[in-house]
Batch of 2 targets.
Target 1
Amino acid sequence: MNTGKYIAIISKSIFVVFTLIPVALGFGYAFLYSFGILGILNDGFTLAHWKKVLFTPTLWESLGFSFYIALISLTIAIVFALIIAIYLKQKLQKGFLSIAIYLPLVFPALVMAFFSFLLLSKSGWLSRVSIRLGFINELEQFPNWINDNYGIGIIFTSILLITPFFIILYTNLYHHEKLDNYKELSQSLGASPINTLRKVLIPILLRKSIFTIVLFFIFVMSSYEVPLLLGKQHPQMISVFTVDKLQRFNLLDIPQAYAISCLYGLLVLGTMALFLVKHSKIKLK
Amino acid sequence: MSYLKIQHISKTFKNEPVLNDISFSLEKSKVLSILGKSGSGKTTLLKIIAGLIKEDTGKVILEGKSISKMPPNHRNIVYLYQEPLLFPHLNVFENIAFGLRLKNLPKMIINEQVTTMLSNINMEAHANKMPGELSGGQKQRVAFGRAIIIEPKVLLLDEPFGALDSETRDQMQILFKDLQQKKAITALFITHDLKESLIMGDQLGVITEKKLTLYASKQDFIDDESTGSKKEMDFWEKIYKS
């Protein structure tokens, strides 16, 4: 056996031992716990925890709210990233901007959430500036953007966190996929600059980044620190809702928390599987 | 009257002159083959004619009117790269239909024209395939079809067969010549290949030292030692005799 084969086997083993096995064990444990098979207070197999979870409207509200946050955040972030990457592509390749664009990526989500809190809360900078400028008379008049019903603070922070990543991705894709050549070709075939953008540049960039978009959708949907700091008690995003159940004083809630984790895990896996099957079919076509 | 007229075109990039006072004219439905070394400014010349690069001085005149200030999408001059550059998100049919859809033609007419073009380029069986599923030669056929279907006033070909193997290259030369005559296309054809320039061009020119030399006939081109045609012919003659 040559060295290449050994390295391949070792790589696969590392992947299985450090990635697949821990996830499978964790998932299996949560699954058994949720069916009452494991756990100190459980008495044996039961569907009670799953029934309770599935018929709790709060769970579906939480899932819907997480989906809404991910959809709005990602849509706005992608639109911003596309505009910036397409119109500032030269500056993003060289000079100050090419370095500055990496800076937001070094801030952890919690720091960014705290920054949003300082900026957007009723006692934050924007509110104080608004008073100084005479837009409002007292802090209470400033709109609720933190811990609000629409998750504006969470969306704002998610956009801050993911937009730089998509700008870097699209700037690199633009050069790697030779989009300047496609742009010239499209114009030469009679497309106006708007048509070139709409029918060539944006579809190519979106198509090439579809996997990343799906992964980031799941990332935002499952985010924890940001909604914990900036979200409301109701509705909660799915991770906060699950951890809340897991850490409550009532130990009988723990199997439900595991059932929610399993359900969410299955939903994500199912969606990914459907997406992969559909994408590979499109590729085959 | 000349169909396409290039008058005193010059271009400099970062203080480096690329083209210097280029002038020539081309009649309708004729092909001008241009030879030149890498970096001699051939691509720049084509891009200036297509409106993709702005000339420093000079004029591009098409059908008696200056088009120098016209944006590329209004010129109806198609510039084809060496790479076929098929749009990766569209299948073969939609790639060919691209220019027609921009004109907002009725669906039925688009379908009809694209189907005819698919048959002209022998790609009927591949209409629903994505670009990644095609060979280099097939991609280049589609690129031709996509350009020719919009009936461009001038077709600019920048070493279109440069990346193909010799057999596919020969087939593509025949296909292009056939389509060019059928559709009476006016074209500028850039190539490194002496033989190809002679096959494809009705007129021949060479860019050297930022200047374009045009030849009155193919014989003049062959007789000029600097084109290398004589050397090439001598080489094959020697091989044949030995």
Note: The mean pLDDT of chain B is 90.
Target 2
Amino acid sequence: MGIISKYALLLGILLPTLLIPFFFIPSKSIKKYAGLLAMMAPLASLGIILSIANKVGIPQVNFVNWIPELGIHFSFLIDGISLFFSITTCMMGALVCAYSHYYLPKSSPKNSRFYAYLLFFITAMLGTVLSNNIGLLIVFWELTAIASFLLIGFKSSKEGSQKGALATLITTGFTGLCMLVGLILLSILTGTSELSEVLILAPTLTQIQPYLTTIMVLILIGAFGKSAQFPFYFWLPKAMSAPTPVSAYLHSAAMVKLGIFLIARFYPIFGGNSLWAPILITIGVITMVIGAVYAVMTHDIKELLAYSTVSQLGALVMSYGLGTTYGVEHDFYQILNHIFYKGALFMAAGVAIHTFDTQDLRKMGGLFKFAPIAGIAAVISVGAMIGFPGTTGFISKELLLHTILTIPTQKENGIILAAMLVAAIGLVIAGIRFLTLFFGNLKGLSEEHIDPPSMGIQLPIIIAASFSLIFGLFPQDAVFWCDYLRVAGLHYPSPASLSIWQGITNPLILSGGILTVGAGISWVLYKRKWVDCTLPETAKLETKFDHLLNTIQKISTAITAGVKTDHSPDYLMIILGFIAGLLLLILLPLFPELILPFLFKMDDTNTLGSLTAILIGGAAIATLIAKTNINKLIAISVVGALISFYFLLYHAPDLALTNLMIEAIGVVLMVLLLIRLPKEDTSQKVDGTLRKTANITIASTIGVIATSLILLMTNNQVLDSISGYFIEATVPLAGGSNAVNTILVDFRGFDTMGEISVLVIAAIGVIGLLWKKGGSINQ
Amino acid sequence: MISSLPVLPVIFPMITAAMILLFSEVKTRRLIASASSVVQVAITVMMMLAIQTHQILIMPMGGWAAPFGIMLTVDSLSAIMVLLTSIVSVAVIHYSITEKTEKQEHPLRLPLIFFCIAGITLSFVTGDLFNLFVAFEIMLIASYALLTLEIDRKEISHAYPYLAINIIGSALFLCAAGLTYSLFGSLNFADIAISSTLIMTDPRIVVIAVLFTLVFGMKAGFFPLYYWLPNSYPKLPAPVGALFAALLTKVGIYALLRIFGTMLPHQLWGVYSIILLLAIPTMILGAVGALERQSIREILSFNLISHIGIMMVAIGLFTQESIAALIYYIIHHVLVIASLFLLAGLIEARAGSGDLKKLGNIWKQSPILSFLFLIQALSLAGIPPLSGFWGKWMLISEALGIGAGVFVAIIVITSVLSLWSLLRIITTGFWTSSATTTTDSSNHIISKDMVAITLSLVLLSLLIGLSPNSVIKTARRTSQSLFNQFEYTKKVMEYRSIRTPHYHTPKIIESPIQISPEPIEIQEIEEHQG
């Protein structure tokens, strides 16, 4: 492979990001056509990817070195799954760029930032779906979250944007980390981080089997977080504070499909696990029902779409759970269905929001007259959403019903079917409700005030919608393409053909029933002006999440207050207490004899020494008992003086002298301090006894520990000390007869130099403090 | 040249500090400071290069060889730390120079910064326990002075806990050093390492190890010894805060690595498990504290604590790979936290406050600064492909590989909390439009130089993030050499200098010091500890 084609794929993926600086060129024409220029980037990427796929065939691995030390490389797997998601990402990306061009306010300086984020997202998305390396997958996976964070927070000054962006990144960040742990485990156990190898090795290696369920659950948490499954789905409605093109792209067509992608990618490994189906079906069913019910119970147009997306994602997750060991069928068709109709609906909603300047469905209506193309697109897309014959949605729903009806009869069978029916009816109502914004009387605005949406903004909508119709009318074409993208281990070896008319079957009857019931309920709700569709805030998990965050913050405050990070006298005690406690904990089990220190053999039987020692002890105790500061000070200075005396006893006059000097200076300083200190206030004496007891306990424990440590270390010395050498060498090598002096100035002169600089620095510090007092820092 | 290389990065800042004190002309002082910090980088780069060929650089101070004299001993770990120090210093000093006008500059700030750097560097290059204590003293006394130098009179009480706790720490260090001397009869790391193999089973080694854990844990900010840190760092001027946050805690971590890696035998599983157990509350309380705080640098300081917790996990696992992860993580963390403190300083200068409630509109007013801050914050939280991620990847992989899943779970939770606390700065601080502070830009001009200095630090860490291979390789090689205690001790003890006494024969090393056996499962360790 030539050098160019080796890097071609990497270039294709990075291309949108590499084009970002281009949008910051201060040129009027670039600003003017920014969206249309941005549209070229995903198309170019798609061209590169497809031509590589075409040239070499699939599946293939494209490899460029990155971090060999960690086994992380730019390794890309071009196979059916990655191609399918690359194609949808790039095509929707191009449509959304074009749509944004007309959606965003013209000539706003913020636009270049918007396209920068969007193009960055496209790179992240392409990288994720094409990754063949576990590390690379995580890198791009997290990058999509960052792009999403920036795009949700694009209208940064709104509180909703701030909260939405934060909630999204925290949720997907957490679930992403769980996935990371699962993937690392998988890579450790298989000994490779290349997905193509992991997929082959994992089912065969026996050492993995005990961990397989753990790994699966961790990876599924990642998938559920990204694909807004219960209990993580709350971030998706919160993310609706993003500009509408972003919602249309990231939060319906692209990023939220990554969880589905992950499930599809790992199907060959986990499809046979006994917990795979139960987890996917349970979570999928719960999400599907919650999403559909909440989609009905809202007046906010974007929330309606967000919840219906949640519901659809639940259905997709469930359908992977219903797969057999042979694999699944027509999953790409179902994903395609959702991408196109939901993308189109979001874009249509964007047009409506632009026109009416509100997101409340009760205040919108009659838009069809002004935006007929968007209206037609919306009708087609709603048709797909509710499963109207002739659209992809119809066939998609038939397939799902067929799968549920043909699984071997189990107890759960009925529950799944019932949930499916509830969800489908809910979506029908939500879909019909969506159409009210196009039909009926013009609301909120008078006709002359309305600014009819441009042709350009409606075009991408109808393009997206037309796919629903084309693939709905000619499903065999879609099947042909999906068959080309078939992946071994995930899909049936040969797919069943699809057609609109398959005779009067049970799914058809159910479909008809769903539509009729849904339409009926919609009619009733419509007559009652949708007043029943208000959901109390408290019933939403979003609110619960906010509560959770608040609670965590409150707990944080409580904990930090509890551990006294702000009150200095207390934490001195905590620190000393901790030191004493830990040392006791270590010392006592290791050296039980320390409890009775007199068991140590004392070589020293010097009576004068013993007497001094006892006096020192007595003076130390006196410091504890003494009432006034002056008395305490006297006791302390007695201790110091006696220690100097003790040094003298051991023939160390220089040490004694030094110690005496330091003691003298110390006492003088403390007296000076005492003079300046305010008189003891009575308030301290309230909890005085408790504090005093604690202080005494800690102080004496530390004293005892220090003593025992010295006894312990000096007792039973088995190793030669270097100290003998100094006495031996002081005259011949250092040329001085006093070993202490030669150590200080010769053997270890470097230490002395350091200590002298400490004194110099201390002096500088004092000068600094004095300056502060003078208030002037001029020399 | 190479023979005296180890002492140069210590002596050079000291001489610089003295020279700055001698000159009264502000321009001259600044020129000296600037030139010296650049030369310092050159010296440390040379050191790094010399390490590639010589593995260990040794310099006996005053010609006295081990175990009697002080030997500066620079191995790969020391060279990395010294290089990091010089890189952070050059940024901090230039930021400090450009931050203030010539009249505003406190004449003592620059000399004290240089003294502090000298202390930090000495603690990285010394091969002697008591000399390490001296290095700590230089560093600490300079840091006390810096802390009180420009602090408001009202806030000077925040300096008190820093002082008090570090004095306790110094006293404890002195005790520990004395006790070590009385047990091993020596102060040289290599000499102690050999002696400790002779009394490997002596439980007193465990006591020594615990003492040093306390001493350096207090310096690094272990639970519950960290209280001094988050209250004092945010009060410092931005460049000094950056220096402290980036390096002072790392000195503690480095010293622990030196003690456990070079000086003591490698089987102290009980002590390692104490560190592991303390790591849990350190990580969690750090992250939790960051959530509660309301100003940028306080949030950063608490995040620092929680990341110290992550480093503690790496030390506590004590495998070659976990230490490699730690060394990588230190490299990343020094650069990122320094740049974040500098960025916080710039943003505070621009907005007039670091309080989240008072900040606002930063995203629109200073898009570049806030974007840089976002990148570094994400890096600190460990988002790929930024530098913080790879260290976490290495550590999590290693922990999973040896079955320490509990710590992985806590690291995951901490990372999420940390991410949250940092993003709060962006969302509620930078994005909000209702700023209550005066945005009178004429008062708060930040020079382009300051942005450029900060930017270069950001770019450096970005480079490490995007192309971490060589850094990881270096970290792994360093960890490998740290685990090869025998090589270190052999080189030090066999070093001959002109004043090595002829009648001194070095202790004979009969067998290489045992490298730790197969990693012990965590459960076992905990049982052992209980």
Note: Residues 283-466 of chain B form one domain.
